[in-house]
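REQUEST ID: PR-0412
SUBMITTED BY: lab tech R.K.
PRIORITY: routine
TASK: structure prediction, single protein chain
INPUT:
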Amino acid sequence: MSVNVETRVDDLGSTEHASDAWDLKERIREREEVLKQRRSFFIDAYRRARDHLLFVEDDLVGFASVRRDGYILFLGVAPEHRSEGHGKRLVAAALQDHDSVSCHARATNESALSFYEHLGFDVERRITGYYEDGGDAYYLRLGDGSSLRGRFADFFRRSVVGE
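STATUS: complete
OUTPUT:
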């Protein structure tokens, strides 16, 4: 069975889908104890980013909020829709506008770290006490700014051949 995934974008300044993104983020936080931002911080960051959203039958299944410099502020995929390529699609959407992308991931979030490593992100450093609750983070980057599109295209070719 084929599922139609609709891609939408909230450009800088828009909060059209911010409440849906907040609700999805909160579902993930409650289940996995990650994405622990306060609502006011989240909405402000969302508004200042370009937000890539994936919908299945009008239900938000994933989103990525990306700053102007290619930093991924938030990346979330509904747990029941993981392993369907949505996270990869969101990172690819971020790469449409940037030669490299970066993000932080909680040092204890093994699934996120595995996901980013699988896509080819490099861990650049560990930051002690990065999160408000004192948790450590890794700063990750995909690409060196010069050959990223080729590197990502190679990754997608390998993953499609392997599927």
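NOTES: The domain at 5-162 is CATH 3.40.630.30 (Aminopeptidase).
REVIEWED BY: pending
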